Amino acid sequence: MRGDAPERAGLDPEEIRQLVSEVRDLTAGPRPWAAGTVLVVGRGSYLAVEEAAGWAVRYAAYDERTDSGVELPPGAGVPMTTATPFDLASLTKLFTSVAAVQQIERGTLGIDARVGAYLPDFRAAARHDVTVRQLLTHTSGLRPELPLYDCADDAERLDRLRAEAPIGVPGTYCYSDLNMLLLQHVLERITSRPLDVLIHDGITRPLGMTATRFGPCPGAAATEDQRRPWAKADRGMLRGVVHDENAWALGGVAGHAGLFSTGRDLAVFCRALLSGGAYGPARILGPDFVELLLTPPGLGFAVDQPWFMGELAGRGAAGHTGFTGTSLVIDPARDTFLILLANTVHPRRRRPDSGPRAAAGTRVARALRGR
Q1: Same domain? 236 vs 137
Q2: What is the CATH number of the domain that holds 157?
Q3: CA 264 – CA 84 distance, rounded (Å)
Q4: Residue 252 — left, alpha, or beta (φ > 0 → left; ψ -120 to 50 → alpha)?
Q5: Is the same domain home to 223 and 189?
Q6: 323 and 220 in a common domain
Q7: What is the rounded CA–CA span in Å between residue 105 and residue 100?
Q8: How far apart are CA 161 and CA 260, in angstroms?
Q9: Strands in the chain per DSSP E
Q10: % of the chain surpassing 70 pLDDT
């Protein structure tokens, strides 16, 4: 992709200037929305915006007495750059989903097959006829998560997953990390390869996404001073290791969380999907299977969700958010993508606020209309 002015990408330059200014403002003040941000906007073959603001590392710790971050001494903070990797959190689910659709394309995985056909030892999922499609669309009825981080060892964690039965009505939407953990086990069982290898060999290596990998990832933007009671484990200030407690307990490689990446690498991922599964000489999916991935309700991807897409929603836009502050939206109808990466949990997690994400999506939509 070529870096170029918004006009070359068919975007209204005034709306884009406002967008950049508003995202910069998100990092300002004593209690910013995020310590730092990276904003990337592209359309067609043009990378119209690539901007960094704020800090990759701003705080040494969180002070619960003052409910504020302990600022690092002058000169000790790490400025955000466009090359800073982020803990993607749940954006990892998009890569797990693409890996699954690759197996569907190859005929090794049936989208409506029962999970029990691949994982007969996962007794509860088998007994309740949970399907691969239900995992990909969060309609399996599985609860949002399990406290795997409190298990004594990997054997106990695996036993908990094998025994976990749906608590909701199958076919009813309930967002759950467990769906992607079960899907990870399905993929690893049918391919005899671990998830990190599947994603590297099938997605990131062919696309040249050299900055995208499971951790540890030295140099990444810091996340949280993770301590109880606000967190689920006592780990201190995190940087370069996965924030999600269950992914951490599972060794850092999990179907729902664990990947690190940069704005530029994610732009390549977006461009490949907008181009029907190809980027340059590499193809990771056929066009029909990209369409399967993105057709409502989406497989792994959320489709037309104004709460984080703003006015980009409504015409088949697809994407996801991550708990650490990450988000990604692709708009096939307008051949456009928006990536907003932020470390909103640095120094401590707060009540999620996707208003700035939605506002960014609205700015991009208006920049498209303005041209």
Answers
A1: no
A2: 1.20.58.710
A3: 10
A4: left
A5: no
A6: yes
A7: 9
A8: 25
A9: 2-3, 36-43, 46-57, 59-63, 68-71, 78-79, 86-87, 213-214, 222-226, 236-239, 259-261, 278-279, 282-283, 302-303, 318-321, 327-331, 336-342
A10: 99
| CATH number of the domain to which 230 belongs | 3.40.710.10
Looking at 193, 221, 251, which one is the last position of a domain? Answer: 193
Range of the domain at 124: 95-100+108-193
Residues 304 and 322 both lie in one domain: yes
d(CA 117, CA 108): 12
Are 179 and 304 in a shared domain?
Answer: no
Determine contact, residues 84/261, Cβ cutoff 8 Å. no
pLDDT tens digits, residue range 81-99? 999 999 999 999 999 999 9
Q: Do 243 and 269 belong together in one domain?
A: yes
- State how far the Cα of 351 lies from the Cα of 361, in Å rounded to an integer: 21
pLDDT at 4: 66
In this structure, are residues 265 and 203 in contact, taking their beta carbons and an 8 Å threshold?
A: no
Q: Which of 159, 193, 227 is the last residue of a domain?
A: 193
The yes-or-no verdict on residue 1 having pLDDT over 70 is no
Spatial distance between the Cα atoms of 368 and 126, rounded to a whole number of angstroms = 47
**Token duo for residue 107:** 């005929």
Calculate mean pLDDT across residues 233-260. Answer: 98
Confidence of residue 370 (pLDDT cuts 50, 70, 90): confident
| Residue 78 φ/ψ, nearest 5 degrees | -115, 110
